[in-house]
Structure to design on (472 residues):
């Protein structure tokens, strides 16, 4: 495939060691950006079949210290999948973790029985084979486990991968799309690790003495390393996922310049938008392009982090152009987003709460399927939800399957990139947001979805409810 073997050296610690990456000799001056493998599918009769194995492994999150990790088809993270709108995909996913797992296709519009919500766990030794048509337009999704009570543990150990959805629109054709060449995945994570290399995943673990909070980019520790990437096209597209269990990641340029943001969680913005920062809560994605003249260094600012007790700024990637092409102008319009007129929408209130260490939605702890609050609605309903945060903690509000528009943020109307489509959005301590969505365009007849906080330990501690959509 179209990218060269990736060398890693210069003291950087990379966990993607049995995929495309190899540890280079100490003579290497710099470490290069790991690019997760692209998962090749096999096509027949209009169905593309993919094979994934969830497995345990080992790697070095901290230099010289072995950690127990997990990954799909490798020891850490998973390969990137490319799905094409209109195709049918079949995934054969084998669990060798020694524990139940699920695989959730975060942000995909697919029937719930084909999506690994917590009701669809499968055991060690089993293979789960969901199949569905890709209804989504071009966007960046991701996949990760979602079993009750073990989501944080499985994700932080490395079970996460990107999904690129492609479509045949003129806009998609005009944007960089050569994976690993001018279309670059960036998976950001802030983990919690003790000096023995044990990756922590709950509040008790985060607070232990000696735990540090390394920042990883595509599986490489960037605490003391700036990775390098040589761009062979002047225009380079970046798809950024914040796969952290808790922290907010803000991406910016070290020189204070602008990034040209083209997409939020659920696809293209109406137009390319110059921004100086891209703030991603846990679970969120964004896409931007850079038209490179000189080298650009990207920074990640890690904030909130009630787990890590402080913020930090990491120069994680220097992109150096080695290109002579002249990119065409970006399309002047990327998408048509008709803002919902919510005056006739059904209103609902979702309260994010807390009772000691138990996290609640509408007063119920979703630590068991029976215990979680269930919200019922009917097919084709149009709704506006007020998400009220009655805690002083930051939350990241995720709704499965259905993209939403953000109508209000702490009483203010959204502007700029917040006028895009989302599935995961920040709710600050004591704050509130209003979101609007339509439960349309389904291809199945039973619909049990999840809504939850994407701070993974909050989800495991109960901040999750189910949503039942029934035929009216
Ligand atoms: Cu990415 Cu229900 O989660
Ligand atoms: Cu939360």
């Amino acid at each position: 495939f179209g990218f060269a073997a990736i060398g890693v050296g210069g003291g950087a610690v990379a966990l993607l060691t049995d995929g495309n990456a190899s540890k280079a000799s100490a003579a290497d001056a710099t470490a290069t950006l790991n690019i997760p493998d692209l998962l090749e599918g096999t096509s027949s009769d209009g169905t593309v079949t993919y094979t994934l194995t969830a497995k345990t492994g080992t790697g070095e999150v901290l230099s010289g210290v072995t950690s127990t990790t997990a990954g799909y088809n490798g020891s850490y993270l998973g390969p990137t999948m490319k799905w094409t709108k209109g195709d049918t995909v079949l995934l054969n996913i084998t669990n060798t973790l020694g524990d139940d797992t699920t695989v959730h296709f975060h942000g995909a519009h697919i029937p719930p029985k084909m999506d690994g919500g917590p009701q669809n766990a499968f055991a060690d030794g089993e293979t789960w084979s969901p199949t569905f048509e890709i209804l989504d337009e071009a966007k960046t999704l991701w996949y990760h486990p979602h079993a009750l009570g073990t989501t944080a543990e499985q994700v932080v150990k490395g079970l996460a991968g990107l999904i690129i959805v492609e479509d045949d629109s003129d806009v998609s054709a005009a944007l960089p799309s050569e994976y690993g060449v001018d279309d670059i995945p960036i998976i950001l994570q802030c983990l919690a690790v003790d000096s023995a290399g044990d990756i922590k995943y709950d509040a008790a673990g985060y607070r232990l003495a000696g735990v540090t909070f390394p920042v990883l980019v595509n599986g490489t520790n960037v605490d003391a390393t700036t990775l390098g990437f040589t761009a062979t096209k002047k225009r380079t597209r970046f798809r950024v996922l914040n796969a952290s269990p808790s922290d907010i990641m803000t991406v910016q340029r070290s020189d204070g310049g602008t990034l040209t943001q083209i997409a939020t969680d659920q696809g293209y913005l109406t137009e390319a938008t110059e921004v100086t920062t891209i703030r991603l809560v846990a679970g969120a994605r964004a896409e931007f392009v850079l038209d490179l003249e000189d080298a650009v260094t990207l920074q990640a600012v890690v904030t909130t982090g009630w787990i890590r007790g402080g913020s930090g700024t990491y120069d994680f990637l220097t992109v150096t152009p080695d290109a002579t092409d002249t990119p065409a102008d970006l399309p002047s319009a990327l998408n048509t987003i008709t803002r919902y007129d919510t005056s006739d929408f059904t209103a609902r209130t979702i309260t994010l709460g807390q009772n000691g260490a138990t996290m609640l939605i509408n007063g119920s702890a979703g630590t068991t399927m029976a215990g979680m609050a269930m919200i019922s609605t009917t097919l084709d309903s149009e709704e506006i939800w007020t998400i009220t945060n009655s805690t002083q903690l930051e939350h990241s509000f995720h709704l499965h399957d259905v993209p939403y528009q953000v109508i209000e943020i702490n009483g203010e109307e959204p502007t700029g990139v917040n006028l895009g489509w989302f599935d995961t959005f920040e709710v600050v301590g004591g704050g509130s947001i209003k979101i609007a969505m339509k439960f349309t365009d389904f291809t199945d007849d039973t619909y049990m979805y999840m809504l939850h906080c994407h701070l993974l330990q909050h989800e495991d501690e109960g901040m999750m409810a189910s949503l039942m959509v029934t035929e009216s």
